[in-house]
């Protein structure tokens, strides 16, 4: 029943979410319908057509019409009608002027269509048309003077600039995209909204100024969507444009700027917080005007703007906020986009994993060698008798008179047996008969051996493909693993840090599993005294009940200020390594290669590869082998499969004596368990105090055979142990010593230093001295020291209220 209730609950949530999305989609579709049908262009054109600045200038109609001509030419008739109607609402002369300037630009645009598509050419053309038409209209009404010419020049310049701004706004409105709006685009949208609201100048609703209500509503919407910075910027821009219409709007500039600032700061309170910011700004600016009546009407205007904000559909606000950097909607949008990309990538990886798995199954499902079918021996007898008995003069005697005896003898020979009686005294071609049977048996053995090798190769390829499929499947699972919501833990960490006087701007938890803790902290200061290591990491260790250390940290890039630090679980053991080389005959190039690096899932790999011979060729072989092995281990491929894959590659491309020995040690940093995989390598030694343990195996190097022998040995290391791995050059240089292994044990046991680099250097030096100062082969020693991982700073106990 519980499962049924859970299923019903999930189904109800899914249906509710689906209905909510459909409702939001319908609201957005209304806006899209208004825009696609040209109604927006008609209404916006009407407002811009009646917008006037400095009493006489109308610089908004032509830029809007020109922007529509460039961006959406099919909507130009609606725009022309709206602009002309809006200007005609002011009077016959403004309507005639607007129609004239729009028609002249339309004709000029058609003549210069090849060049007018460029925004700067279009801006220059709009400025020129404005200057010409305004000059003619002014000259027809009054004499021209230098002051009038200056005004005409200013209107023409304003027309060109507004066209560039409107083009920027149309780019934002017409192109659906995921990227965030830049500050320039937000300002351009604010200018467009202010110009449209400017068309309401002079309209009154009782004693309320409608343009004031519209301007405050736009600022409220900007503050709610984008915060204090964009809200205050929009307030200043809109206020300045309104001041161009009338100097009576100067107090409105302060009100809009303060309303945008306070509303953005109180954005966390939602619409109520933004409205409170507007009311506070209205009270502050109203008190400075010392006009109680005007303050009363200003509060009414703010109340109407607030009512319009509450009536605005939430989906419209979220649609705008999704493109504003820093907003919650923008963060959610980016997270959803990242999730979609991650899911798509994981799906592709899973498909590739399935392909490799299918290929692995196809190689694994090869049929075993077919058993000899019934009558195979008769077929072989027939082939042999065709070569021997058909031309023999005793054929009738053997196969007609004594068929049973002859058939029994031939069957024994066909099954690699020997007839019981002395059949050679009866058969005159017994030697040839034996040779023919032996030849057929050899051909059959070769065929069976080839089939066996093919099956072994198929099984090996199947294991390789299966290993790749497992790695890719694991990678896909990691991609699909959702970042868990740990809001409560994040808030707790922030509060605990605040209690100790450390402020954290943001805490992001990626994983809280034991041994896999992973979280990021954003600090509002640049670390100068090791606060992350000395204070924050010990506090996190106490909060999470697990030793946590700083994984990486760094200062934020300009213009930001602060420190970003990543904290992860500390491993139980710490590994240090040292490497010492001595090239053949004191040369500079050694044929040995080695590596000692941490790899995936808290493991440490140390390996030595010795290429056959000396010099550059051996160095190239060993580097290739160790490089392939290291990359496979880092990719998550199991050690045995990685070494077998390298062996397969070397065997396939072998030319001459291209062989390599491999000595690999894998150390688990959580419990210090070590696995040794030796392929043609000399013994390794584990030093624990004065006791020495030898790890040895006997097998051939890589590259000899496709099917290789590999010994896997295990050893439990402890804190303080030292592991010594070496190439065969050290042991070969000790030929004059009766028991090289015993000598090596004594040298290691007598080491006093615990530094792995010093220990490796001392061993190589001792081996060279024991060889009489000559280096007859490349020598390499890798020393590894295992210790407990002890944090530098103890955990800080949390303060508890004891009452």
From TrEMBL:
Pfam families: SpoIIE, SpoIIE_N. Keywords: Coiled coil, Hydrolase, Membrane, Transmembrane, Transmembrane helix. InterPro entries: Bact_Sigma-Reg, PPM-type-like_dom_sf, PPM-type_phosphatase-like_dom, SpoII_E, SpoIIE_N. PANTHER family: STAGE II SPORULATION PROTEIN E, STAGE II SPORULATION PROTEIN E-RELATED. Residues 472-499 form a coiled coil. It comes from the Bacteria. The chain crosses the membrane at residues 39-68, 80-107, 119-137, 149-174, 186-205, 217-250, 270-287, 299-317. Residues 576-786 form the PPM-type phosphatase domain. One of its GO terms (molecular function) is protein serine/threonine phosphatase activity. This is PPM-type phosphatase domain-containing protein.
